[in-house]
Amino acid sequence: MYHFFSEHENIHDTYIDIKGSDVNHIKNVLRFQVGDKLLISSGDNVDYTCHITQISEDYIRADIDSVDECGKELPSKIYLFQGLPKADKMELVIQKAVELGVHEVIPVAMSRSVVKLDAKKAEAKVKRWNAIAESAAKQSKRSIIPKVSEVLSFKEAVFKAAECDVKLLPYECAEGMKKTKEIVENIQPGQSIAIFIGPEGGFDCKELELASKADCQIITLGKRILRTETAGMMVLSVLMYHLECESC
């Protein structure tokens, strides 16, 4: 079943209107007809199974058949603070992070980030990254569209993460997989989680010091060195498994 999102003002007691670019996609790409079924999400973890009753130039109207108020979101909000990687790796990171349940992706310009974005380039990149997040949310049938924020400095990122209950920073020189296991197992559903991932060059000493002072827990992900685009996915996968098992 194809998945779409609709604004709150377009969701009514018995029907939902889909507007914007999705109208053309439904009409002319998917070639849906009256009676075809859709999954529509409100963006706040409520899903609606619907069938199309009207197709016009400006909107698609679908009657509500059933409502799932539990949604498909993890019981904890996970914030991925991703050090800016080279080339188009950020697009892959965002796509897979959304599939794995991230709540928000925060690009971070770190000391060892090779990529340097001026304000104009950063704005264009963030717009594209949010489009990728929306596409991945539809594909993976998320109940919300995770946001990709504006690019922050490391200091700004640490300040933003201060609101989270748990703060994790995987570091290649850290030791003790037992400690990592204990930290993950102590995370409870409902706690907010920040994950800091360094760029290709890793974290520098000042960043590690700043993170430690802000109560980030420095953890290891094992004996192997993971690429920047792999490390975040590994942590998200472990957290997704742990949180969904705990909330069953």
Largest sheet: 7 strands, parallel
The helix content is 25-40%
Please give the number of β-strands. 12
Element string (H = helix, E = strand): EEHEEEEHEHEEHEHEHEH
CATH homologous superfamily (4th level) name of the largest domain:
SPOUT methyltransferase, trefoil knot domain
Q: What percent strand?
A: 15-25%
Poorly predicted residue ranges: none
Structure classification: alpha/beta
Q: Write down the oligomeric state.
A: single chain
Radius of gyration: 20 Å
Structural notes for this entry:
The protein has 7 helices and 12 strands. With 248 residues, the chain is α/β, with parallel strands linked by helices. The chain folds into 2 domains: 3-68, Hypothetical PUA domain-like, domain 1 (Ribosomal Protein L25, Chain P, Beta Barrel); 78-246, SPOUT methyltransferase, trefoil knot domain (Alpha/beta knot). The strands form 2 sheets. Strands 6, 7, 8, 9, 10, 11 and 12 form a 7-stranded parallel sheet that branches. Strands 1-3-4-5-2 form a 5-stranded mixed sheet. Helix 2 (89-99) links the parallel strand 6 and strand 7. Helix 2 (89-99) packs parallel to helix 3 (119-139). The model has no long low-confidence stretch (mean pLDDT 93).
